[in-house]
Amino acid sequence: MDFREVTNIEYMNQGDFACPGCGAGLSMRHALKVLGDKTLIVMPASCWSIISGVFPTAALQVPLMHVPFATAAAVASGVKNAFRKKGQEDVNVVCWAGDGGTFDIGLQALSGAAERKEDIIYVCYDNEAYMNTGIQRSSATPPGAWTTTTPTGNPLIYEKKDMFNIVVSHNPAYVATATIAYPDDFYQKFEKAKNAKGFRFIHLLSACPPGWRIDSKDSVKTMRLAVESGVFVLMEKEQGKPTKVTYKPDRFVPIKEYLLSQGRYKHLDKDTINKLQIMINEHLASLGLL
Q1: Spatial separation of the C-alpha atoms in residues 72 and 58, rounded to whole Å
Q2: Where do the domains of the chain lie, and which CATH numbers do they carry?
Q3: What is the sign, positive or negative, of the torsion defined by CA atoms of 116, 34, 124, 281?
Q4: How far apart are CA 137 and CA 145, in angstroms?
């Protein structure tokens, strides 16, 4: 599937509460174009809890369940099994959670659902901090990035948690990284997730203009720079197959171009940027990309 084959039907209403340039809002709009109307969204506390609108209205034209921060995968597991008992096997039950509700607070429920091979799709839109509550650091926050709670003086003390391989260790049906900045890759991965059975996980890089300190018009450009610099690698793993990189730039751009495009990295000195470049190069080499 590529973007020319995606339906013109909209499953998001106008008037949602997303910030201009929000990668999470754009991602939901296009994910639903692949998933279709036989979809139920389970949503823990996150930016999207606000984006979706104030009760009794909602920005989505599919059923939406708001649930406590730590419970998304557990609730989705129960919902899917309820549909199964009713003979409705064709409903996509989808967790739509931020990095705080995935990397941190919801990790135990996610791990349990993956271990049990629950037949759900878990989507993490990763804007790399707790953006909804004031840009606090999460374990998805990259080394060197500014947040309102990041310790000063040692910007590289924490590394970003490797959610891709954490989920892979559970032997799921499908796991992938994606970003709407590469729409063909995005659509293909959601199509694979939709058609697979068992636990499926998609990790979306999702630009946050206020939190990343970028202009809203530069949201897609910045997400593309993350991929072109090797900061965010587009890859997937289908059960029983090796991990596959789904897009490799002809030439990786220096990480400096990505970092200095955002205000959250403006405090970094040349030495720290060089250290980050070395870290990225080592990761790319481990994937056979350098």
Answers
A1: 18
A2: 3-286 (3.40.50.970)
A3: positive
A4: 9
Query: Which pairs with CB-CB distance under 8 Å and at least 24 residues apart come from 280-288?
Result: 280/229, 280/230, 280/231, 280/255, 281/230, 283/230, 283/233, 284/230, 284/233, 284/252, 287/233, 287/235, 287/243, 287/245, 288/245
Q: Specify the 3-state DSSP secondary structure of 289.
A: coil
What would the two tokens of residue 19 be? 């910030």
Rounded Cα–Cα distance for residues 233 and 280 (Å): 10
Full DSSP string of 129-188: SBGGGT-B--TTSPTT---TTPPSS-TTS-PPP-HHHHHHTT--SEEEEE-TTSHHHHHH
Evaluate whether 35 touches 64 at the Cβ level (below 8 Å).
no
pLDDT digits (tens, 9 = 90+) for 114-157: 999 999 999 999 999 999 999 999 999 999 999 999 888 888 88
Site of tokens 């931020």: 98
pTM for the complete prediction? 0.96
The verdict on whether omega for the bond into residue 210 sits within 30 degrees of 0, i.e. cis, is no
Which position has the token pair 């878990």?
Answer: 122
Beta strand 174-178 pairing with 92-98: unpaired
